Amino acid sequence: MKWTNRKTVTGALLTFTVALAMMSGLVAKDKLDIMNLDRRAGRMMASALDQTYVYHTNGNLWMGWDSYGNTGDQTCSAIIPGWIYPGSFSMGGHGYLNYNCRAGYWIIAKIGGDFVEGTTGEYVLTRGTEPGPTSQGWADSDTSYNKEPWISNSTWYIPDANLTVNAVRKSWSFPGSNFDYFKVGNFDYNDFVVEEISVINTGSTDIDELVLGSKADHDCTWNVPYPDWDAGAYWTDDIVDYDQEYLLTMELDGDDQTSASNDFGIDDPNHEYRGVRVGQIPLEINGVPYSSLSASDVNHMWWTGDEDPQTAAARYAMATMVSGSGDKKEDNPPPMDMRYLQSYSVSPLAAGDTATFVIAVLAGAGLANTKQAAKNARQAYDFGFDLPKPPAAPQIASDGIQSSDDGLSVVVTWSYSNAQMEAEDLDNGNADFAGFRVYKSAQAPRVTSESLGLAADDLNDGGEMRGDVTKGMAFSPNATGPYTLIADISYDGSSFSLSSSAAGTFMKMGETYMYTDPKVAIGLKYWYYVAAYDEGGTSANHGTVDPLESYYTMCYALTLDPYGLDLIPSHVPSVTVSVSGEMSYTDLSGKTTTDVLVTPNPWKAETMETYHGSGTAAGFFIRFYNLEAGNVVRIFDVTGNLVYESDKIATGANSLDWNLVSRTQNQVVTGVYYWHVKRDNDNQTGKLAVIR
Predict the structure, then answer these.
(1) How far is 281 from 248, CA to CA, in rounded Å?
(2) Domain boundary among 370, 387, 416
(3) By three-state DSSP, how is residue 514 classified?
(4) Is the pLDDT of residue 463 over 90?
(5) pLDDT tens for each residue of 25-40
(6) Is residue 379 part of a domain?
C-alpha cells in the first residue's frame, strides 16, 4: 500500500484554525449555544496540536475523522467534512451541504461495577482518549486497472481502560452502471464509507462488557459556510428514522420549523427538495455477519440536546437499551434538535482479545435511495470488499479546462496512457477499455428535483414524514452536478469514434486527448469531467457486471486538505467562459464593432436566475466588455448623481462586472441609468435599465 505521510498541526495552523472557528464555527446551534453557555469546561474551538485527520473525499459522501475518534470537527464549522452529501468543498451555489455538527464514538468498558470510557463527538475534543498515528492512501498503484479503494488508518487509545482502538476505513468512487443524479443504483459504491473498528484489550484484566456506539449530532442540513438563518433555527427540525430490514439508523432534515410534513434540504434560499438521509448499518459485529444479526443485536436511540447523558454510567445505560428494553426502534420522534446513537456490545472481552465492528456510514436522497446504499454496502461486504471496478479515470490537469480566446468554446484536455487502455479487467480477464464520455454541468438553467426525476419520501411511520417534491424550488447546478453527457467517444480496440450527437470535435495527440465544446455562453460558469468506461463482463466473484465508468471525483489531481497539510482526492474545478482581448460583435445597426458592450441590458432578476444561475444578489452582475486596464467606468442615475465608479480592470481581463451595488453599498432600485467609460482615445456612453 502507498501511504501519504501525516504531519503534526503547527502553531501557525492552530492560529489559523482559531480564526476560522471565530468566523464560521461560533454559531448558535443548540440551546446551550444560544444561551452562550458551556455545557462543561474545556470546550474545544480549535485543533489540538497533536490532532491529525484522515479524509474520504473520493465518492459522493465526504467524511473526515481525527486521531481522537471524532467525526468531522467539534467546532460545528465543518472545516473537516462530516457527512457532506454530495461531497464538495465548492462554493458554487450557496455553499455545500453538511449533515453533521458533532459526531464520534462512545466506547465504554464495564469492569465489575465500574464504567470506563473513551467518548468523542461531544462539546469537548475528547473524554478519555489519547491520539495515535493516522495515515491514508490508495490501495494500489497508478498503473493498476483501478487503484481504489482509498484506505485510511486511525489509532487512538483509552488508557484508563487499557484499550487500543484502530479504525481502518475504505471508500470508493464507483457510480454504478446507471449514473443518475442523486439516484443510487446497482454496482454503485460511492454513497458509503466502510469502517472496520478494532478494540484491543491490552490490559491484564478481563472486561465484562465492551460497548461501541456511533453517536451523531447531525443538524441536518446547513450550508457551509453560509448557514441559512432566514430558515430559522435549522438545528431544531431534525428527524430520526429507523429501517428494520437493514438495521439502519437514519437522520434527515425537515425544514419547515412548524411542521413535520415536509423534508427539505437547504441548498438555496428557497429550500430545494432533496430529502437526503444520512445513517449507518452494522455489517459485522465481532465476527457475526449482518445476515445473522437481529434487532436485539443493535441499539437505536435518539434524544434531544437537553437530554445528553452526563456520566459514563448514563451513556452505558443509553447504549445498551436494545429492543424490548427501552430503545426507540418503534418510536419516531417529531422534528427537534436531535442526537442519534447506534450501538453494539461484546461480552466479555478477555485480556489480550480484540473486538471488531464493521460498520457502513452512508447517505441517499430519500428512503429508497438510502436503503439501496445500505444494500450496496452489504453487497460490498459479501464481495469481501473486492468490488467490480471501472477503468482508471482519465486525468485532467488544473489547467485542462480552458475557455477559447474568442469565448466561443471550451477546450477539455485529458491524459490517458496506453498502459491504462491495455490494462486487464479482472471481471472478464480482458483489456476491455471501451471509450471516454465527456460530461458537463452548467450554472444555468436552474433545475428542480422534480425535473430530475427524484421521488419524495412517502411513509406513515409514526411521524408522518411526507415530503412533496413538487414544492421544491429550482437550484443552480454546480460542481456536484447534475451532469449532462455531451460526447461519447467509443473505442473499438484500434481507433476512436465520436458519437453523432456530440456537437463538438475530438482530437487525439499521443496519450493526450482533447474535446472542444461549442455549446457555451460568454460569462457562464461550467464544470467538466471525463469518464473512462469498459465493456463489462462476468466473473465467478461478481457474476454478470454491466459496463462501468469512472467518476468525476477521480478525474482531477489530488488537492490539499482543508488545513493544507496533506493531499486528498479532489473535485471538479470550474471555468467561466471569457473573451481574451477585444470582442467583435454586431450592433443594432448591423455594423461590426468593438465598442464597449454592456450586457444583460435590460437587467432582469429572472434573466440572472434563468440564464446565469444566480438566485441571490450575491450572483447579480452587469458586465462591461471591451475595456482596457486604466479605463474608468461610471454609472449615473437619471438625476445625474454618481451611483458607481471603478477603474479596477485587470490587465488582460478586458471586462468589468458591476454587482448592482452603489458606492454607498446599497442594491440599486428599478430604473434607467446612464453609463460612461473613459478611455485613453475616446469616451463612450450609453443607457442601461434595471428591472427588479
Answers:
(1) 5
(2) 370
(3) strand
(4) no
(5) 333 343 223 222 233 2
(6) no
> Are 289 and 416 in the same domain?
no
Burial 486-525 (b: 16+ CB within 10 A, else e): bbbbeeeeeeeebeeebebebeeeeeebebbbeebebbbb
Is residue 465 included in any domain, yes or no?
Answer: no
Amino acid occupying residue 466: R
> Does 264 share its domain with 146?
yes
Tell me, yes or no, whether 61 and 145 share the same domain.
yes
Q: Supply the pLDDT for residue 4.
A: 41
In 112-234, beta strands by DSSP E: 114-119, 130-138, 150-158, 163-171, 192-201, 209-217, 222-224
Tell me the CATH number at 635.
Answer: 2.60.40.3080
Does residue 561 fall inside a structural domain? no
Q: Are residues 357 and 418 in the same domain?
A: no
Q: Say whether both 620 and 657 belong to one domain.
A: yes
Q: Average pLDDT in the 253-267 region?
A: 53
* Alpha-carbon dihedral angle through residues 267, 271, 276, 278, given to the nearest 10 degrees: 70
- Alpha-carbon distance values, 103 to 34, 154, 214, 217, 225 (Å): 20, 16, 8, 6, 19
If asked whether residues 302 and 407 sit together in one domain, one would say no
pLDDT at residue 261, as a whole number: 44
DSSP strand E in 325-373: where? Answer: 338-346, 354-365
pTM score of the predicted model: 0.85
Q: Domain range for residue 532? A: 401-443+478-556+569-576
Give the pairing type, strands 209-217 and 338-346: antiparallel
Residues 343 and 286 in one domain: yes
pLDDT for residue 41: 29
The half-sphere exposure of 132 on its side-chain side, counting CA atoms within 13 A, is 14
Of 677, 666, 675, 671, the residue nearest 691 (C-alpha):
671
Q: Is 519 left (phi over 0), alpha (psi -120 to 50) or beta?
A: beta
Question: Distance between CA 410 and CA 584 in Å, rounded?
Answer: 18
Q: Which residues have C-beta within 8 Å of that of residue 509, sequence separation ≥ 6?
A: none
Same domain, 309 and 191: yes
**pLDDT at position 57:** 95
- Domains in the chain: how many in total? 3
Q: Per residue in 59-68, pLDDT tens? A: 999 999 999 9
Per-residue pLDDT tens over the stretch 479-494 = 888 899 999 999 999 9
Average pLDDT, the chain: 84
Q: Which of 318, 352, 370 is the last residue of a domain?
A: 370
Give a yes or no: residue 432 inside a domain: yes
Residues 6+ apart with CB under 8 A from 93: 267, 268, 475, 476, 478
211 or 22: which leads in pLDDT: 211
> According to the model, what pLDDT value does residue 225 have?
62
Any idea what the CATH number is for the domain that residue 429 is in?
Answer: 2.60.40
Q: What is the 3-state secondary structure (H, E, C) of 52-74?
A: CEEEECCCCCEEEEECCCCECCC
**30-39, 152-161, 331-340, 423-432: range with lowest mean pLDDT:** 30-39
